[in-house]
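Listing S7. Sequence submitted for prediction.
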Amino acid sequence: MQVKAYAAQSAGGELAPFDYELGAIQSGDVDIEVAYCGMCHSDLSMLDNEWGASEYPIVPGHEVVGQIVAVGDNVTHLKPGDRVGLGWHAGYCGACESCLGGDHNLCADAQGTIVGRHGGFASHVRAQATSVVKLPDGLDLAKAGPLFCGGVTVYNPLKQFGIEPTARVGVIGIGGLGHLALQFLRAWGCEVTAFTSSASKHEEALTLGAHDTLNSRDSEALAAAAGRFDLLLSTVNVSLDWPSYLQTLRPKGRLHLVGATLEPLSIPVFSLLPAQRSVSASPVGSPATIAQMLDFAARHDILPQVEEFPIEQVNEAIQHLRDGKARYRVVLKVGG
């Protein structure tokens, strides 16, 4: 099968049409005809080789939704015509302790959808069947893609840490991840506060599910929130005054990071020790967690706010995201 894609030939380069052959399908793989593909900052990081893991030419795109068009001989749970999605991982070893325990997303040999292989800015994408998840009936195909990365990234901590529906949670950063976190947490039952430095996002955050907002640039407001939260979920990719944020946590409270902050964290141990606070981070979720998240999203009508671009305008879409103008997720219309 010939795939029509868009690829960059070097770090930071523009994407241009790029065709390649998929070759014979393997026994455990499936081929997806791409309908839509979301775009997130991880795509930009891979395009620019910020993490040192990029190989060129690179076809980005790891928030894929579409339908199955071919399955390998050993695939029994998916069939041609199924509406499915694919996120950050396109395969797992299936035999390590993490995989056998259901934590496929922690597999040391997990295969990235756009790391060493071509992603979803393309007519078709191939992946291991175990990494592909069916979409619930009724979930809007045009908006579902970002759930496979941004959605599960903010949902995963709720499951991993057994967050109670009575918890008081602060969400730091109301963007591509944060606007989804507000919706999930509100539906989970939590009391939700949005930390934002943008006055324009105050009312929007309340509409998305926040009960309250807090100006993250107001040191007095941060001080007044001392001991308020059970969980702080940080979705930003910049360094902040972490000790000030930690003081807003209750005893045994947790600061959890899902934004890919590149700078080292500067955290005095006495911001943690006396109140037994903790700091943690997590990646995307396992296929089972993605499936659970999709069912929860469908039940509570949780969807990202998206701006749609045709695949032919992929470079304009990338610049829109680079400029910080996305409200809140960019989605490419590829086929269908």
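Caption to Listing S7: primary sequence and predicted structure tokens for the chain studied. The mean pLDDT is 96. The chain has two domains: 2-149+285-333, 152-281.
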